[in-house]
Structure formats: C-alpha cells, structure tokens
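Fold it.
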Amino acid sequence: MRFALWLMGVFAAAAALALFASSNDSTVTVYWPPYRLDLSLNLVLLVLGLLFTLLHLALRALAVLFAIPDQAHSWRIRHQERAMYSAMLDALLHWVAGRFLRAKKDAEIVLARESTLHSYSGDIWPDAARMRVLAHLLVAESAHSLQDTATRQGHLTQALDLATQQDIHVAREGLLLRAVRWSLSDHDATSALDLFMQLPGAVARRTVGLRLRLKVARMAGNTDLALETARLLAKHRALPEVSAQGLVRALALEMIARTYDHEQLVLIWQKLEASEQHVPEIACAAAAHLLALGGSGRTAFEWLLPIWNRMINAPDGLTLDQQVSLIRVLEDGFVSSTDTVDADWLQRIEHAQQTHPGHACLQYLAGVACLHLQLWGKAQQLLKAALPRLGNSELTGRAWMAVAELAHRAGDAPQAALAWKNAALRCLGQSAQPPSH
C-alpha cells in the first residue's frame, strides 16, 4: 500500500512537472554588458538543479575525504578492542580448563592492550576500570594456582586500589572474597581473618560470606565465632538440616573439650541455646567434663535432667550409645561427687527402674546407686539381673567389676574371681560367663 501511494505520488509529480514545462513560455534574460542572453526558464531551472546536485556531491566527496583519518583511527581502536576482548575470553577459557600459565599470559595481554588503547585514544571508555580489575583478578587467580604468591599479591593490590579509586563496590567485594579463599588455601588463618574483617557487613552476612567466616573461624581455632556462624547458616537454611545439626554439635563439643576451668565451662554452657543444651551428646560431654574439672555434681546432674526425662518418657528417644553415655556420666557423678545422689535423684532412679523393669541400663544404674549408698544386697541383686541383658560391652564389663567388688566385700573369693575373669573377658571382647548363684 505504501509503495502504491509512493508510485502514485511520483507519477503525479511527473505529470505536474510536464504540464508546467510544456506550458511555460517564460524566459530569463541575463545582461552582461555589452551582451544580452535570453534563456528559457525551464533550462535555467534544469541548470540550477544540476549545479546544486554537483555541489552537493562535491561537498559529500570532500567530507568523506577529510573523514578518512578519523575512520582509520576508529578502525584501529575497534581492532584493539576486539583483540582485547578476544584475549579476555581466551584467558577465561584457559583458566576454566586449568591451563593457568596460558590464562596468566592472556590476562597480561589484556592489561597491555588496555594500556595501549588508553594511550592511543586518549579517552577513558566506560568499561576500562572493570576490564582492568577483571584482568588483574585473572592474573592473580592463575598465579595462585601456580603458587606464585608474589605475583598474586601484586595484582591483587593493584586491583583493590583501582576498584577503590573508581568506586566499584562489587569488584572490591569480589576481590576480598577471593583473597580470603586464597588465604584459606594457604592455611593462613590470620591473613584470612584480617581480609574478612575488611568486608562490608552486608557481604559478611551473605551465605557465601558466612561459609567463609565459618572456615576462617575453624582454621583460626575461634570456636565461639564458628558456632555463631554455624547457627546463622542453619537459620538461613544454607546447610541441610542434618548437616547443620551435626556441625553445631561438633563445634559445641569442641568448645567444651577446650575448656580447662569449671567456671568457664559453666559460662560456655549458659551461652548455648536451649536446643543445643538438650542434645544428648552435648549435655553428656559437658556434664562429664564438669565433673572431671572438679565442678559441682549437682550442676552436672541439672544439665543431664532434660536428657534423663527424655529417656524415661520416650524409651526410643535415645539410641543405645546415647543411653550408655548418660548412664556412664551419672555413674561417674555418683563416684566422684558426694552431693549428687540426693533424695530426688534416688527417687527418680527408683521410679524409672520400677516403671521400666525390663530396661537393663536403668537396672544397672539403680544397682550402681545402691552400691554408692552401701546397699550391698540390693545392689548385687540389681546388677546380676541387668547383666544378661546389657547390650554394651563396656557397661557389661563395669557391671562384672561391681559384682566382683560386692563378692569381695562379702568374702566370697571364688565368686569374686569368676566375676573378675568375666570382666576381663568382656574387656577383651569375649562373651562373659553367666554369674553363679
């Protein structure tokens, strides 16, 4: 439709021009003394049109001629830019492919071409700073893989200075994160921690920042910081739930094991969250360590009370290993402290043993409590009843030793000898013989 209208317009203009030219009798007289020249108006208009066209073409030709140097300059700049981009792509591909020496050389070519382009053009193109920062980073990455620390640090410093001068926040954050990873790879916890502290708060709270902080804290031996970071990762669901729980448990156990003063251990326990205090492994380890440091037995038993209630209220709530750990700590508390076996705990143990008469571990614990309270007969009865059903070799061996001690107190030398033999066999991993009545 547009072409048809354009064609109709051309024909209409041609018809109008033909009508004008055929019926135009006007003339143009040019006086040039002593001459006079009469020209047709149609001819004058035609000549003027031709002159205008020739003048326009001449000016265009001159403009193209004078623009040749600028075009050549622009072409050389574009050629340099294409070569620089090509070298950057080669550097990235070589770095990804593990050809670090080639990647380092290509990145250095990018830096050289960018400097040449800047000095040749005299202008600062918008992406120059980011291109130089990225090239410095690739050189540093390649140097790190080649274990060239001096080159890595030199290009890292240049990249950080350029990113700071040009106010490129994203580039600076990325450089610092990479620098922290390099320090971790070098096992330099001090340098990694210093670099991490230079990160803005918002970056440090990101998932990648939290993961790095966890690694830095663990390498530096800062268990408090590592535990706090693990909690944040678990809160943000940056780790699988099972992995997060295992990590928090391991860090809490490590922090407890590194404590050498019972007052400090109490402070550490108070810093733990309620969910962490109710983890059987953490509670048992903390109570056992408190008893080993000479702390209050009552405090240790208070820490174990939620785990005890969990075992009593839900027999399947604790695994056999967790039950054994709890029984062991309670037994150690009976032996090492004089203020733990009070009326409340005796009532708890007796009630639990009566409520779950088939629970061998509870029978063993009740027997140990009676032994501690010098109730020899009842202790011997409970221990012998628990012996055949104890599923743990360590508890079985300790039960045989308690039976041997009771037999020795009763003056029954053969029974004591048999019990000591069975305890030794159990400690060696063999089956114990049934007690003789």
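The beta strands are 27-32, 35-40.
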